[in-house]
Design goal:
Order of helices and strands: HEHEHEHEEEHHHEHEHEHHHE
Radius of gyration: 29 Å
CATH superfamily of one domain: 2-enoyl-CoA Hydratase, Chain A, domain 1
CATH class of one domain: Alpha Beta
Strand content: 15-25%
Structural class: alpha/beta
Oligomer: single chain
Largest sheet: 8 strands, mixed
Distance between the termini: 89 Å
Helix content: 40-55%
Length: 306
């Protein structure tokens, strides 16, 4: 091929490249800016009201942990505690999910994280709290209503046919005996020991030998709690964002991905708000719903509370 022909071909290719170069650069710039300004997704699980059922929270946590686009998880607390079993189940499940799908988990407290709520928060990698928030109340109790005087006043009688000396333990219509009270005390003692051991294992700076300082049912401001090792960082949402960025090593904006809201109604009736209303089609159904709620409340009052 003559040199002049090769020159013309090369010149044509060069002119085509120059012509399309701005479009190519614009595309590269657009792609770069897209990645540069992509927000980092952080899952938010709000734990409010009394914890009576761990399943809804566990379901949301599993979704967030398995979603690779979510880089970290925030547990947002405004909770006074709950049933010891549900709180412990949620804490244990959170620990397992962190092992199976490693990603940072930060607990954030604005007003309250007490008792069973702290059991869950202790499973996070760190706890950020507003200095005046209420933290702690690591202890266990059984609320035992007693209606014997009430039924006697109205001349009502109840007769229990039972097998087993302790079968009516906790029954609100049966007078407690020293033996039954001792049985309930042994249950609270054992549950408390588990509570303290779990928190100490999840937060090694809290030694069991010094649990009388940081547990024993005591409540603290977050400022006091930090001095004891119950809280890691004091501050508001800015401190939370900084903690997340330190743990995930990202520097762009955050896209907060909120899980379903769990209200007091859903905690008491064991259903989502939508499910609850969809099943209330008549006064009779509404009565059934409230009857179930009353039964749930009675069950909770006779269960171990943390």
């Amino acid at each position: 091929m003559p040199w002049f022909t090769r020159f013309l071909i090369n010149l044509a290719v060069l002119l085509l490249f120059i012509k399309f170069l701005p479009d190519m650069m614009s595309g590269v710039k657009h792609t770069y800016e897209h990645f540069a300004h992509t927000k980092t997704k952080v899952g938010v699980v709000s734990i409010k009201h009394i914890i009576t059922d761990a399943n809804p929270y566990i379901h949301t946590l599993k979704e967030f942990f398995k979603d690779n686009s979510i880089k970290a998880i925030v547990l947002q607390f405004d909770c006074p505690g709950g049933c010891s079993g549900s709180s412990q189940a949620l804490a244990l499940e959170l620990q397992q999910l962190k092992k199976d799908y490693p990603k940072p988990v930060v607990a954030y407290v604005e007003n309250m994280c007490a008792s069973g709520a702290y059991h869950v928060a202790a499973a996070a990698d760190s706890i950020v709290s507003v200095p005046s928030a209420v933290v702690g109340s690591i202890g266990v109790y059984i609320a035992q209503p007693y209606f014997k005087a009430f039924i006697e006043h109205y001349k009502l009688q109840l007769n229990f046919v039972k097998t087993g000396k302790y079968k009516t333990t906790g029954n609100p219509f049966v007078e407690p005996t020293p033996e039954k009270t001792a049985l309930l005390q042994s249950m609270t003692d054992d549950t408390y020991a588990q509570f303290v051991a779990d928190v100490s294992a999840m937060r090694p700076k809290l030694a069991i030998a010094k649990s009388a300082d940081w547990a024993d049912g005591k409540v603290f401001t977050a400022k006091q709690a930090k001095e004891l090792g119950l809280v890691d960082v004091l501050g508001s949402q800015s401190a939370l964002v900084k903690e997340l960025k330190d743990k995930t090593h990202f520097d762009n904006e955050i896209d907060w991905v909120h899980g379903p809201k769990h209200t007091l109604i859903t905690e008491l009736f064991g259903s989502s708000d939508d499910d609850l209303m969809s099943h209330v089609g008549s006064i009779k159904q509404l009565e059934q719903v409230f009857a179930q709620g009353y039964e749930q409340l009675m069950r909770q009052s006779l269960s171990l509370q943390a």
